[in-house]
Amino acid sequence: MFSKIDAKKLLLDNKRPLPEYTLKSLREKxxxxxxxxxxxxxxxxxxxxxxxxxxxGITVGGKTLREHLEVINHQQAISYVEDIVRKxxxxxxxxxxxxxxxxxxGINDDYxxxxxxxxxLIAGASHTPPPHYQLDSEMEALMNWYEKEATALHPxxxxxxxxxxxxxxxxxxxxxxxxxxxxLNLELMKSGYPPIIIEVKHRLAxxxxxxxxxxxxxxxxxxxxxxxxxxxxxxxxxxxxx
Length: 242
Description:
The chain has 10 helices and no strands. By secondary structure, the protein is mainly alpha-helical. The chain has a single domain (3-241), classed as Fic-like fold, CATH 1.10.3290. Helix 5 crosses helix 8. The protein starts with a helix and ends with a helix.
C-alpha cells in the first residue's frame, strides 16, 4: 500500500535541507489549511480567508470568541508539536495533556489538559467511550501499545491507529478530535513526513472510517484515508521543490 508513498518520501528526503523561504511558505500554507479544516470539521464557521485574518491578529465581525480562540489556540498547539519534533522528545501523557491544554485554553480552562471526570457520548458514533474512572488505565494501555507493538508499524499505520484508539478512549470533555489529529501529525512528522490535512469536504468519509476503526477494530479504510492525505501532502512539497 505504501510503496508509492515511500518512494515520494525518499525523493523529498533527498532534497533536504529544503530552501529556507520555500519551507517557510509551505509551513504557512499548511498551518492555515490545517487549522481551517480541523476546526471546520468540528463546526467552526470561519472560512479559510477568515481563518487567515484571525491568524494575522484581526477580529472577524459576527463570529464568536470561541471560534477565534479555536484558531489562535490551534496555531499555538502546532508550534508546540513542532517543538516536540525538533527536540525529539518521546511521546508521553504529559505531552498529550499539554497539547489539549493549548487547544482549550480560554475556552474551558477548568478542563484544559485535564482528563474528564464524567461519562460522555459521541454523537453519531456506534461506540461508547469508557467511563471516566477507567481513563488512567486506558491511557496507560495506549502508551504501552505505542511503546511496544506500535514501533514495528509503518508510520502511517502507527499514526492512524494512535488517532483512532485515542478518540475511542475520548479522554477529554471536549476537543478530542482536534487533539487526535495533532497527535496523528506529530507521529508522521517524527518520521520525516510533512503534516497532512484531513479536509472538511471529506468529513463524512473521515467520521465513517474512524467509527469503523474504533467500533470494529477494522482500520483499513481509515488508513487508506490517511495514506491518501499523506501522498497529497508529499505531492505538494515535491511540486514546489521541482
